[in-house]
Structure formats: structure tokens, C-alpha cells
Fold this protein.
Amino acid sequence: MRRVMFLLAVPVLVVLAACGSSDEPSSTAGPDDARVIELEMRDVAFAPTQVDVRAGEKVRFVFRNTGQVTHDAFIGDQAAQDEHEKEMRGGHGDHGKGSDAVSVKPGNTAELTQTFDRPAQILIGCHQPGHYTGGMKVTVNVA
């Protein structure tokens, strides 16, 4: 009887071992081979405020709004940020599907994926009224 139980237990243990987990953090690459960078949206600040990426790197930004109000995230250089700020002030704050921007309600998350083709300094800014001018931005250093 013991031998039968042992023979039955071995395959079960092998399967369980194959399904085991580890306390080590998972890879920063997502299912699409994009590097994942998580950004927290606070009341009028992002955390972290600076990230470094490599030219040619595909990055998936995951925005988690822990603040009390809706935030947005727009990816672009300084000229694009200035233009987007004007659009938002003019009441054209809709971020269509496929744009370089998302709006995130409190307690929610959203994602943007971007490939950085060449070295540059790119910004991610929140253009809700007063947020960008109040310093709610992330500097993305592409080297």
C-alpha cells in the first residue's frame, strides 16, 4: 500500500514543483517584449520624476493613479507638451484611442507603449488644469 501511495505521489509532486513560484521579482519585460516602467500619479506629482531608457527601446508605461482627482499622461518633447497644454486649456482634452495620451481616474491604471527611436529628452506630463505648470511631469532621458 505504501508503495502504491508513493508511486501516486511522485507524479503529483513533479507537477507541483513545475508550477512553483518564487519570491524573486518578475522580469521587467512584458508579453510584447516591452520594458515595463510603473509610474504613480499622485495629487500633483508623478513618482518617479525621471527615468532612463535606451534609444530603440520599447517601453510600456503603466500609470497608477493614487491621487484624488483624474490625471492624464501625455508623452512628447517640450514643443509637443506646450501644444498639448494649449489644447487642454482650450477644452480639447479628449484623448482618442491610439494617441500618446491617457486619462486615468482615481484608483485606476492605464498604459501607454512607446518606442524611443533616437536619443532625446522626452517628457510625460499631466495637463489637467494647473498640474503641468505645477510640475506634474516625468523626464524621460533617452540615450
In short: Residues 33-142 form a domain with the Immunoglobulin-like fold (CATH 2.60.40.420). The chain has one domain: 33-142.
